Amino acid sequence: MKQIDICMATDDNYAPYAGVVISSILEHLSEDYNLVVHVLDGGVSAINKAYLEELKQNRHFEIHYYSMDNNEFNHCPLTYLSIATYYRLKIGEILSDVRRVIYLDCDMVAKGDLSEIWNFDLQGNILGAVEDPLSAKNMQRLKIEKQYFYFNAGLLLIDLEKWRSEKIQNRLFDTLKMRKDELKHQDQDLLNLVLYKQTCSMPLRFNSQYFPYGYGNAKKQEYLSSLTNPLVIHYIMADKPWKCGSVVFRRRDYVRAFKKTPWFLKHKSKCFLQCFMRGPALLVEFLKYWYKHPICWFKPKFWRKVKQIIFPLAFLR
């Protein structure tokens, strides 16, 4: 049987969300493939590891943990993400016997067969990645040449043999020292700075990101297609689908995947209480917004946001 290796970085807080990603991948993965999961472990508890093992009841897979030392990343700048995001800078060294891997963030859910990404032709490049919605803006900020693109690092197909042979880990940490103050988006900026010339562009549906007005007219149709027919959904906004008051696009897909995991099945009463509290939570979020923007009713921007929640694809029509 053929094998697919995936890698995720998580601490204990994000372990349930990593479990949702794994569960959704197993649900859609072709029977011709065996899944091997590599977890860059920033302190996953015994109970969460037990829940991850329970996912094997639905379909067998392998899982391996690699204990990470946060002290190794103390010098890395932090803005809005946890230090665990930097673990992947050492991915080639940690997964020393792995030839190719798909790296995934924890705020995702699979909607199709991951083997489509696994078999993607990198055309001799080290990375395969999807263009970021704000690619042009970030390229200008980091002074990346126009013939390339700025990628979203939430999903990466990595040729680890090339990564090791070209000493990418050393290049990343060297660049970190020299351009630390430029890293607005932390390790994503760093990976782009080092690897933008060695990254192959993948279809937007491989890492479908809802970000209104983010892509230009040239990608309008592909962007719409990626939202209506995604292979992997990536919840890139601060509004995450596991939050009780979330109004994020395609939240139902996430909830549906979550309900098939031990975190839901073992704690149904708590989850049902959260469902019951969803109405009040949404009201609280609105009141907080209204408190910060008391004249929001009179601003076109407010009504555009409302429209995006009610009719999320209307802006592309």
Write up what this structure looks like.
By secondary structure, the protein is α/β, with parallel strands linked by helices. It folds into 2 domains: 2-226, Spore Coat Polysaccharide Biosynthesis Protein SpsA, Chain A (Alpha-Beta Complex); 285-317, no CATH class. Helix content is 39%, strand content 17%. It contains 14 helices and 10 strands. The strands form 2 sheets. It has a 7-stranded mixed sheet with strand order 3-2-1-4-7-6-8, with helices on both faces. The protein has a 3-stranded mixed sheet with strand order 5-10-9. Helix 1 links the parallel strand 1 and strand 2 (33-41). Helix 7 crosses helix 8 (186-195). It is globular, with a radius of gyration of 20 Å.
